[in-house]
Amino acid sequence: MVIQVTRRQALGLRLRAQQLGRETGTLADTAVLDIGVQDTGTDGALWALAIRGVDQPPNADLATVWTIRGAPHVYRRADLPGVAAATAPFSDADAGKRIYDAARPLRAAGIGIVEALDTVAREMRSLVTAPMVKGEVSGRLAQRMPEPYLRYCRPCAATHLYEQPFRLAALRAGLELRPGTSPPVLQPVAGLAPAATVPDRLDVVRGYLRLLGPATPQHVAGYLDAPVKDVQARWPADAVEVRVEGEPRWVLAADADRLDADPPRGTRLLGPFDLFLQARDRELLAPPERLKQVWPVLGRPGGVLVDGALAGTWRPRKAGAALVVAVDLWSPPSPAVRNAVGAEAERLAAFRGVRLKAVEFG
C-alpha cells in the first residue's frame, strides 16, 4: 500500500533532515554538508551552517569547491576525495548537459565531453601550483587550449575558456577555492584524487532524496543539471514510492517511517541559496502567486521560515555601517512572530559583525 503524504509532512521531513530546528551541532553531524552547502552571496554557506547550530566552524576543516551546477559548495575537507567522485558527471551525455553550450563545439570537433574535462583539468593542474586568481588561470589556459574549448567574451573583449568546463574541471584538477576571495582564487589541495567508489553518505541522488525528498527522478535531475535517464539508472534500490498530495514521489526506505513527525517549530532567516530553497518542486514550498517573488530571475531574496513553512521573504540593506533587514511576510505577523524574526535579524547582524539598525516589515 502506497503511503499518502501531505504537503506539511513532506516539508517536515525535509526540515528535520536538514536540521533546521536544532540549536547546536558539529561539522561531523551536519547532514547538509554531505550534499554540499552552496556558498553564494554574503549570507552563504557559513550562514547556512550557523542557522543549523554550527557557529564559527574551523576554516581548516572546510573546503570550497565548484561542484553541483558549477556553483561553489562547501564540504568537510576530509570528504573531498568522495565528493570529487560523487559530483563527477555520470556519463558523457551528462557532462554535455552540465556544460551547456560549451558542448557543441567540442562535439563538432569529435572531442568527448568527459575527455575534454580531463584535458582542461590536466592543464589546470600543471598551471596552478600555488594560489592563483581565476582571471590569470583563465588567461593562461586560453593560450594553451585549442579553439573548440574557447569562446570570445564580448564584455571582456577577450577569448576565454567556456565557463562551465573551467569550473567543472577545477576539482578534477585537485583545486579548491580560497574562502572569501573575489575574484575567486584557486589553490591546489595536496594529494587530492577522487575516491575509487562513492560513499553512500555522499551519493548525490541519495542525498537529494534524504534531504529534499519525497522527490522524483526529474527533481533530482533538475538539481544536478543531469539527464533524467542517468539519474534513473542510479535510482536507489531502497527508494520507496509515496504519494504527496496524490502525486507519486519517492523517499529512502529509512525515512518512510518518519513522515508522521511534526515539523520543527521556530523561525529562521534562510539565505537565498539555502538548500531548503534549492528543491526543484518549488510549488510545494510556496503559493503559486509567490513563486516569482521567492525565485526571481535576478536578485533572489532570502526566505522566512516559520514553524515548518515558508512564510515570506527578506532582504538585507546596508545603512552606513549598520544592517537593515526588510521583511515581507505573506500574512499579518503575530507579536510572537515579529519578535522571533527580530531575534533572527539580530543573529544575522552578529554573524556579519555589524549592528542591526532596524527590521522593516513590509
Record field, number of beta strands: 16
Strand portion: 15-25%
The biggest beta sheet is recorded as: 5 strands, mixed
**Unreliable stretches:** none
Protein structure class: alpha+beta
Give your account of this protein's structure.
The mean pLDDT is 96. Helix 6 (113-127) crosses helix 7. The protein is 35% helix and 22% strand. The protein is α+β, with helices and mostly antiparallel strands. The N and C termini lie far apart (46 Å). The longest helix has 18 residues, at 335-352. The strands form five sheets. Strands 12-13-14-15-16 form a five-stranded mixed sheet, covered by helices on one side. It has a three-stranded mixed sheet with strand order 1-10-11. It has a three-stranded antiparallel sheet with strand order 2-4-3.
Put the structure in a nutshell.
35% of the residues lie in helices and 22% in strands.
